[in-house]
Every structure is written in structure tokens, then in C-alpha cells.
């Protein structure tokens, strides 16, 4: 192995301490608890806060889900330590996901909902 310098040609790896992953896990668990608490505030607070309208709880849950997604992508997929091209493709993938969700939702909204004879009334 003449001329082998110890690198595999894949670039340099980012070796992170276990505490980094433990902190990431703790943040994800905290956000999980916040998501559940936002969905059922009257049960969490013992009735001090009323349950929000369903769309408010959905918006809160989706916002927290996006935050958790960013944490997972940046930490576990190591996008945080990658070059600009990886950031570009990660952003493009997320942008494409948003486009697909918008198209699916617009199709859902514009369909006429005619009752079927097979549905019980």
C-alpha cells in the first residue's frame, strides 16, 4: 500500500461525541412532549387551558414536525457538516416535497364530494 495516506477518498468524516447525539435525542423528546401537550392542553394542564380548535393544534403539530425534521436532517444525515452542493440538494428535495403536498391538497380541495349510494347516510 505504497502512497496510502489513511484516507479512503471520501473526504473527511465528522466524528462527533456521543453527547452531541444525546443532546439531539433530548431535544427531539422535548419536542415530542410539546407536540402531545399542544394537542391535548386541557388534559396536560388539568383543565386550566381549553382544547384549541382542531386547525390550531394541527398547525402547531406541523410546525413542530418541521423543526424535528430539520434537526434530524442536519444532525443525523450530516448535512450540517457538508458542502454547499449537499445543502442545495437537501433544500431542493424539501422544496419538491412542498410542491407535491400543494398539488395533492389542491386536488383534494377541488374535487366534488358527491354522496355515493354505497355510503350510509
Description:
The protein contains four helices and no strands. Helix 1 packs antiparallel against helix 3 (54-75). The termini are far apart. The chain has 121 residues and is mostly helical. Helix content is 62%, strand content 0%. It folds into two domains: 16-77, no CATH class; 83-109. It has helices at 18-39, 41-44, 54-75, 84-110.
Task: Provide a short characterization of the protein structure.
This protein has 121 residues and is mostly helical. The chain is 62% helix and 0% strand.
Mean pLDDT: 79
Q: Please estimate the helix content.
A: 55-70%
Largest sheet: none
> What's the total count of β strands?
0
Q: What string gives the helices and strands in order? A: HHHH
Low-confidence stretches: none
Category by helix and strand content: mainly alpha
Strand content: under 5%
- Rg over alpha carbons: 22 Å
